[in-house]
Design a protein that fits this description.
Strand order of the largest sheet: 9-3-6-5-13
Number of helices: 12
Largest sheet: 5 strands, antiparallel
Structural class: alpha+beta
Radius of gyration: 24 Å
Distance between the termini: 18 Å
Number of strands: 15
Helix content: 25-40%
Strand content: 15-25%
Order of helices and strands: HHEEHEHHEEEEEHHEHEEEHEHHEHE
Shape: globular
């Protein structure tokens, strides 16, 4: 299989049996569901519907999506709908991108306690931003932002980190004016990293004292109090990685960024190169070598193992809003922010051009997706349903009906 046709589902379909032979006793129910859903996505196993062109009568089958959030096929539609909602919330302000990363020593603990560790990562990073922004020696304002959890590196190893997208300012503590940060600079990263380190380790310590952490396999020794506290001490002595990327500029750049990051999965189909001799070849970016793009080869079973490291717990929220952008107060606070920005009561003028109207998806997109691929004139209408079956081979048995490419 080559890049023209290769998808993650193909690799899972061909090599999951070998993977389960090697690691079946360690696979969680959530990981089992991911394997099952991704293989069945947009196949006859999930059923679908029959579409027919109003003009020429051409028919095709459109199979249902699995809607699993780890599926690279299903994220485009979810991302587009989510971005439409976010576009209406953008402020006419410079935006910043801040990244918080856990040290590698904590990755095994995260793997065995994902809900607790990833939750603490999101909370500690958010609390650090909110606290430092309120400090009058820095911004002296209440801020709001969006956080996105990623758990992977380019080589698919476990690399938990959080991307935060933050407007360059906030509402003054007295609540009567907008405070803008200095152009091109939001908050100092060194005190931010120390705050983050302290808050996260304190959360981890409390979880251990309450007996909430699990230690299995090679990690069993860390259940011992002395060993666990030695781990915390080693992490405390390290400088944690927190960095701010160059500012986005205005809202249009923010949306472009969000389109790439928010609904990303551990590896997209576009990064897959080929499968050859039971090895999966995929593109990756080597950040330690000038961000050069390279091709990595992994045994197919190891590739699947690494992919499943990034299956988050069921119901875990990877995209969260904090501060002024918290879900319960977001609408009211956005109105206040826009009013203060419009009145020009901030301590500095924003360098970003205001967003007069939220960017919208092209209204013809849906029409283009449902236009007949044969005659190019008529539009495809649903004329029947396809019941789910156990074998995708049923597709070949439907004479004169082609399977729709709904990717």
């Amino acid at each position: 299989m080559t890049a023209e046709t290769l998808e993650l589902a193909d690799i899972l379909r061909d090599y999951t049996p070998a993977f389960l032979d090697a690691y079946g006793d360690t696979v969680s129910p959530q990981q089992q569901r991911v394997l099952r859903d991704l293989v069945r996505c947009r196949t006859a196993a999930l059923g679908g519907h029959v579409e027919q062109c109003q003009g020429c009568g051409h028919q095709r089958i459109a199979y249902n999506s699995c809607r699993n959030r780890h599926c690279p096929r299903c994220q485009a539609t979810a991302r587009a709908a989510w971005l439409d909602e976010r576009a209406a919330e953008l402020l006419p302000s410079e935006y910043f991108h801040v990244v918080f990363t856990l040290p590698s020593e904590l990755a095994p603990l995260a793997l065995q306690n994902p809900r607790l560790v990833y939750g603490a990562l999101l909370q500690a990073s958010a609390q650090s931003l909110l606290q430092l922004a309120r400090d009058p020696q820095h911004l002296g304002a209440d801020i709001g932002f969006l956080s996105v959890l990623h758990t992977w590196g380019q080589n698919l190893h476990l690399h938990p980190h959080v991307h935060c997208v933050v407007p360059g300012g906030g509402i003054a503590m007295e609540g009567n004016r907008w405070v803008s940060c200095r152009p091109g600079f939001f908050l100092p990263v060194h005190p931010l990293a120390r705050l983050f380190r302290g808050k996260f380790l304190a959360m981890l310590h409390r979880a251990y004292d309450r007996g909430l952490l699990r230690f299995h396999g090679q990690q069993q020794d860390r259940a011992d109090p002395e060993t666990f506290h030695a781990l915390l001490q080693a992490c405390w002595q390290k400088e944690w990685v927190v960095y701010a990327k160059p500012p986005f500029g205005g809202p249009a750049q923010v949306l472009k960024y969000l389109a790439r990051y928010t609904h990303r999965v551990a590896i997209s189909n576009g990064r897959l190169v080929k499968v050859e001799d039971n090895q999966v070849f995929f593109r990756w970016k080597d950040y330690t070598n000038g961000n050069r793009q390279k091709v990595m080869a992994l045994e197919a079973v190891e590739f699947i193992r690494r992919f499943l490291l990034h299956v988050v717990p069921s119901g875990f929220v990877r995209i969260r809003h904090y501060g002024l952008m918290g879900n319960r107060v977001r609408a009211e606070n956005l109105t206040r922010c826009r009013t203060l920005l419009t009145l020009g009561q901030g301590s500095g003028a924003s360098s970003a051009a205001p967003l007069s109207e939220p960017p919208q998806r092209n209204p013809t997109d849906t029409v283009m997706r449902t236009r007949c691929p044969v005659c190019g004139q008529g539009h495809m209408m649903i004329v029947g349903t396809v019941e789910p079956v156990r074998s995708a081979k049923v597709e070949a048995e439907v004479v004169g009906v082609e399977a729709a490419d709904t990717s």
